[in-house]
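Data availability excerpt. The first of two example chains:
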Amino acid sequence: MAIIDTSTNAPIAPLVLRSPAPREGRAPSTQPSFDADVAIVGLGYVGLPTALAYHAAGSRVIGIDVSPQRLEAIRTGDVDLITRDHDRLGVALGDEGFEVSGDPAALSRAAAVIVCVPTPVDAHLVPDLTMVRGACAAVVEHAVPGQLLMLTSTTYVGCTEDVLLDPVVRRGMVPGQDIFIAFSAERIDPGQESVSQESVPRVVGGATPECVERAAAVLSRYATDVHRVPSLGTAEMTKLLENTFRAVNIALVNEFADICRTLDIAVTDVIDAAATKPYGYMAFSPGAGVGGHCIPCDPHYLLWQLRKDRVEAPMINEAMQQISRRPGHVVERVRELLSDRGRSLAGSRILVVGVAYKPDVADLRESPALEIMQRLLTLGASVGYVDPHVRSLRLEGGVELQPVKSPGSFHPTLVLLHTKHHDDSLDWLAPDQLVLDATYRSTGLTNRVAL
């Protein structure tokens, strides 16, 4: 099937990365025949939109995921995507140039292989590299000469060298000659409709200058702007700076929110006023904590790496500690508000509104709501939740909760506004309902208290 550029109706030539001429004294390697332009390893919140962006730009795409459940959800369209990507998935599923598989052997058929797997931290805030190591081991095992291998998962400085570069060298391949190694951290904001993935610049570094150029060519298949940096480590550190910057500023604005409450000032008024300055200030919003795949995890990869070299980063460390303490702070505020009204937390009924980590997604990864609900249950409260995007959730110890079908019938002692989706209505709230607002923005409620 021909691949057509829908903006011009002209055919697009498939991307083929050809092996360079062999060095003197080296036997020419056999050029493999690639029947796919790009293979994406990991079809989650980053990998699937990335695969769809490449396909929409005219690339032949293979998507690889180890989860049969995830593959079935993709094939049936039962996945959490923005509207544009849902439309793209519908088109892709009817095209022979898009396939999804659980077989890593299919990686050898693609000219470029891009790894998009999660890099979480464990309960002790230590990086969990299980998925990235496993994925990259499979990529290296099935690598063939002429391919580009690119890691996009956020991780520590030197990880691409450890999991891709060194292993292919041990297989006897020469980076920049036989195989091409690069790092370009993902830049996807789940649930964000207003900014297209194609318009977000990509930063890329490679093992050699030729690796950088090969990677830039692949990224340019869909991204309109590619920024080259001098090394793999520079590209890896760039992503760590981006998310550490956000973590430090969120910790700061949470602290300002607590200060403003003490001084009886609405922190949102202060933030909105400061944001009128056209330079030197960037607005951040306080909340119940930080969730998702980036901010709660990525700075810990840097702190973990620095501990090996006995290097301290006190500002980053304190910011991450403040972030980790925030859900506990929410629980204490719940206890305070109930105590002020002569109620004990034990036996009270707490209804959490919105449990996803951010508005308009079903993503529960690192959501502060999970820790908050677990703590409330441990302290003897009855806990329920409402969230149109989350069909069920599981807490520590195997406790599974379903959403409350009729919020009013739950008869909550206190309602915690954790995440406010844009299409949510709070009309069901009784006029005298006690509400703790962790969004800081749900003003106009009669008995509302800001976190």
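And the second chain:
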Amino acid sequence: MKHIITALGALAVSSTLAQAGGFERSSVPLGFMFEKGSYAELTFGIVNPSVKGRAIGALGGAASGNVAKNYSQLGVAFKTDLNEKLSLGISLDPSFGADIAYRAATGFPIQGSTATLRGDTIALIGRYQFDSGFSALAGVRSVGVGGGVSLSRNMVIPSVGLVPVNGYKANFKTDRDLGYVVGVAYEKPEIALRVGLTYSTETTHELQTTGVFLNPLTGLPVAFTTPTTVELPKSVTFDFQSGVAANTLVFGSIRWMDWTATRLIAPNAGPANPLIDYDNDVITYSLGVGRKFNEQWSGAVSVSYEDSNGLLASNLSPTDGLFSLQVGGSYTRDKMKISGGVRYVKIGDASALGGGSHFEGNSAVAVGMKIGLSF
């Protein structure tokens, strides 16, 4: 039964646009802490999102093109047992990210605008096993985030007409902050049962921001340097798995993230301020089933869902809710496990506030692989 546990865990990367309520790309992995003995894993994923919109109002019909860029991710984790009850692990995870680019010369309201955010989490986790089947987890997280933005605005130039002008650029220097994670789990190995509850704190970052903007009165560039504060959200995750028949497992999770606390204000950006501002927290539901075919091969299928809120979205994050289907499999030989998976995401439609635009019919495809080694 243990070989079919979380075959879909190989797909440890998901699209930032698949996580429609925010820009989380993957949560800090804790499943590796339940492996026996010393264990190391490497995860890799590629995500191909497609998010396209059209302008409404006076510029109705102008197309944005695909505003979401492809990206890849790499994560590593290691744990070891210090004794029969106490384990220690460390992980590096590319947990946050966003890549938005509106192509130039399309007639779209914010054509030529781009935004990039990057965030990673280094976590040091300890786990203590009690005799009753319960275990406790606790650790510290070092979270870093930074990025940059370039905003265009449309201006009327005599004899030329409406053209985009790059009037604003800013660079957010990466800043790190410490948070912590605590959790509790209960296991009953004879039926492959494991239930866990994990809480991660928020982190607060003061990003040293340098940039330039056009003075609206003179039209001349003005340089600036100023700190910008942003809070990355706290989260609560409930996850479970249990055998329901011979060689068959059900698994799932419910994850809440406090995205309403996250607001990124771009200094001197005028009407584009704020860049990030969420009106609702996000709850992500996942449910799946796994099947062991033989001693080497197992597979799993799962679905995930995030509700849409129907509110106006930012042009830098023009999505609202999701539904996804994920299929994965794993191969075990001796002390090595190789897993892989494919996820298709139907991204919810959204209307954007700043540019008078609507995005619909969008999707993402993610492919991931994990290699685990026990020693």
